[in-house]
Amino acid sequence: MSRPRLTILNQLGTATTRAIATSGAQVQVLDDACVSPWQQTAHAEILLTAPRNGWREAPQQAPPGWPGRLRWVHTASAGVDFYPRWLLDVPQVSCSRGVAAAPIAEFVLHALLAHTKELGQRRVTDPQQWHDGFAQVHTTPLGLLQGQTLGLLGYGAIGQAIAVRAQALGMHVLALRQSAAPVGDAGVGTVRSLPELLALSDHLVLALPATAATYHIINAHTLAHARAGLHLVNIARGSLVDQTALLAALDAGRLSGATLDVTDPEPLPTGHLLYTHPRVRLTPHISWSASNAVAATAEKFVVNLHRYLHGQPLLDQVDPQRGY
């Protein structure tokens, strides 16, 4: 029996190793989530890794000999801002773009409904509260997403998945994307600038990658254009938002609320105002989470593995110049 042509260092767990094994690809898999991946470049041609695999402790400069035998790195994340820049010195880097689009879109829809319906404030625990709440609804009815405008800053796989679900609820959807590519989806309008998107949106979802160009793209200047009562939702990266400017806009009443699944840094330091601000819903970077996340990531990698073995271009390659 001939020796496998390729060795893969898999850091995503045994379920991913099993998916590779059942794919029919003639490869050897080293299943080790604990090693520092940059110290294993002499042992593998392909690295399958995730932000949690020690990259927070990675050296700022490329280790001696990097990238060694590595010819391809696939990341379980869609963004590559978690990793040092030298990771992109590998001949090919691909990412799991689109894998988390559905769970993130569902998270966003929940955020929109929670903000608009305010059901948490309507909960009752005794008969008197029930009568008071029933009387209140005549003067202060529940909000309605139908007819409201959702702005999407970024229109990749996540933005598109959000748009489909928002339209099903009768929302108007506007999108502003970084590229010049047309949106092309029925019922999704476009705007020419971020100030225009802010001015027209009841809810604004940030769905951009973290790059030098998007750093603090939401700031005091851009927030000055926001429609009164705007609800900001950030499921992308904390660095997109100037958090000082956000707090000022919330305190001034220009924004009615903010749903933040990401912050800068993560986690925020003890005592940070965003933890306890009455108009902020803060979650610990979990919008991507889903019961099928591991399987979906493994499936995406296996598709690319077969393309790699057959000399075909990889899907969802990272552009080192753009950083995503």
UniProtKB/TrEMBL annotation:
Q: Name one Pfam family in it.
A: 2-Hacid_dh_C
Q: Does the keyword Oxidoreductase apply?
A: yes
Q: What keywords tag this UniProt record?
A: NAD, Oxidoreductase
**Residue stretches making up the D-isomer specific 2-hydroxyacid dehydrogenase NAD-binding domain:** 113-287
Q: Does the keyword NAD apply?
A: yes
Q: What is this protein called?
A: NAD(P)-dependent oxidoreductase
Question: Upper taxonomic classification of the species?
Answer: Bacteria, Pseudomonadati, Pseudomonadota, Betaproteobacteria, Burkholderiales
